[in-house]
Amino acid sequence: MKLIAFYRSRIARPTERIAIYGGKIPSTPLWNNAIYGSELKVNKLFKNYKSTVDWPSVAFLPSLFNRYPEAKVILTMRDPAEWFESASATIFKAMLASERNPNSEARERIRMSRRLVLEQVFDSKYSDKEHCINVYNRHIAKVQKLVPRNQLLMYKISDGWGPLCDFLNTPIPAKQFPKTNDRQTFLAKKPNWAKSS
After folding, report:
1. What distance in Å separates the CA atoms of residue 141 and residue 126, rounded to the nearest whole number?
2. Taking Cα atoms as reference points, which of 126, 60, 129 lies closest to residue 91?
3. How far is C-alpha 28 from the chain's CA centre?
4. CA count, 13 A, side-chain hemisphere, 91
5. Is the peptide bond before 56 cis (omega within 30 degrees of 0)?
6. pLDDT tens-digit map of 43-95
7. What is the 3-state secondary structure (H, E, C) of 12-70?
8. How much is the pTM?
9. Residue 74: which H helix or E strand, with range?
10. Could you give the 3-state DSSP secondary structure of residue 72?
11. pLDDT value for 109
C-alpha cells in the first residue's frame, strides 16, 4: 500500500484503486472481527489495492502502518468546531438512519461503521461537541506521533492541488480542483428512505 488518507472534507475522493471496505471480497465480517478485537486481516482486505481512505481504515492506522511502513499518510485538517458541525449534520445522521436502508448488505456495512465510529471511537457520545472535538484532536496527535514527518501531509483543502501533488510526486492536473463533497451536496444526495431523518 502506498497511500493512507484520512477523509471527511470538501473534496472528491481519490479514485485510483482505493480500498474503502476492502474491495470485492466479503469484507464486512473481517472488519467486524477486527472491531471486536481480532487481528485485522490486512493482507486479505487490501490485496490488489494501492491506497485506502476513510472509515473503517482510519481506526486501524497502527496496524496498517506496521504492515506498510513506507506508506504516505494524508491527514485532512479542519477547524474542529466546523468539523463537528459538518459530521453531525452528515455522516453521523447517515449512520443513524441506515437501519431504514432497504439494501440489507449496505445496511450491515453501515451498521458495522456505526459500531466502530459512533459507539467505539466516540464512545456513543457523538452528540457531545466537546467530547467529539477532544477525540478529534487526540486522533490528530496520535497520527503525528506515529507517522514520520516526511511521510505525513497535514493537508488543508483550501490549499488546492499544490501541496497534495508535491507530496505524491505527481503533476498538477489541468482541471480545476474538485469540491464535490460539501455538506449541501452530501445532503442533496440523501436517498428517499433517509429523508425523514
Report:
1. 20
2. 126
3. 16
4. 19
5. yes
6. 888 887 888 888 888 889 999 999 999 999 999 999 999 999 999 988 898 88
7. CCCCCCEECCCCCCCCHHHHHHHHCCCCCCHHHHHCCCCEEECCCHHHHHHHHHHHCCC
8. 0.80
9. strand 72-76
10. strand
11. 83
